[in-house]
Amino acid sequence: MRKVTVSGKTVDEAIEQGLTKLDTTREKVEIKVLEEPQKGLFGILGGKPAVVEMLLKPDPIKEAIVFLRDTIDKMGISASVEKEERQEGIYLNITGVDIGVLIGKRGQTLDSLQYLVNLVANRQSDNYLRIYLDAEGYRERRKEALETLAARLSNKAIRTKREVRLEPMNAHERKIIHTALQNVKGITTYSDGEEPNRRIVVAPK
């Protein structure tokens, strides 16, 4: 965080000087007026300028990226992080070597990192931000694998006329299964159990 103390003939003039020094815009700073301007004798002699203290607010996305890069470095992994804005939110894409370590079993390490990154970002943000982590396209590959699994198990449920219970999954992955099967005739899906062991059940109608 950067802070400057500036002066000007008026408070607005001091603020404009501060914004120039910080190279930022008004909504990105906290402003504290230390001294109001005072006119001197006959409006000329002994006048005092306005004095303003300005603090640059942290950028939550930058804070999240710095935290993520630092965490990856501490894990001994050589990787880069790039920001991408998508319709559903901000994606931080990780590329490099030994990425499998960052992904973990069924993406559990990646999900844990994503949780921590969101904590860091929203600690610094006035409005809730949703940040997604991806590593070498893992999220899309996992989505495709889950959709394939959903189709196979729905066929099994219809064929055997019995419920099929999937392995425990996080809420995001369960949503992928529900969405993939919501229009399939002859079956229904629901979630069962408590976190972190909550799972999808595919049942014949």
UniProtKB/TrEMBL annotation:
Main localization is cytoplasm
For whether the record's keyword set contains Chaperone, the answer is: yes
Keyword annotations of the record: Cell shape, Cell wall biogenesis/degradation, Chaperone, Cytoplasm, RNA-binding
| InterPro entries assigned to the protein according to its UniProt record, in alphabetical order | Jag_KH, Jag_N_dom_sf, KH_dom-like_a/b, KhpB, KhpB_N, R3H_dom, R3H_dom_sf, R3H_KhpB
Pfam families given for it?
Jag_N (PF14804), KH_KhpA-B (PF13083), R3H (PF01424)
Q: Where is the R3H domain?
A: 140-205
Q: Where found in the cell?
A: Cytoplasm
Q: What is known of its domains?
A: Has an N-terminal Jag-N domain and 2 RNA-binding domains (KH and R3H).
Function, please? A probable RNA chaperone. Forms a complex with KhpA which binds to cellular RNA and controls its expression. Plays a role in peptidoglycan (PG) homeostasis and cell length regulation.
Q: How is the quaternary structure described?
A: Forms a complex with KhpA.
Family stated for the protein in its record: Belongs to the KhpB RNA-binding protein family.
Name of the protein described by the UniProt record: RNA-binding protein KhpB
Q: Which organism is it from?
A: Evansella vedderi
What gene name is given for the protein in this entry?
khpB
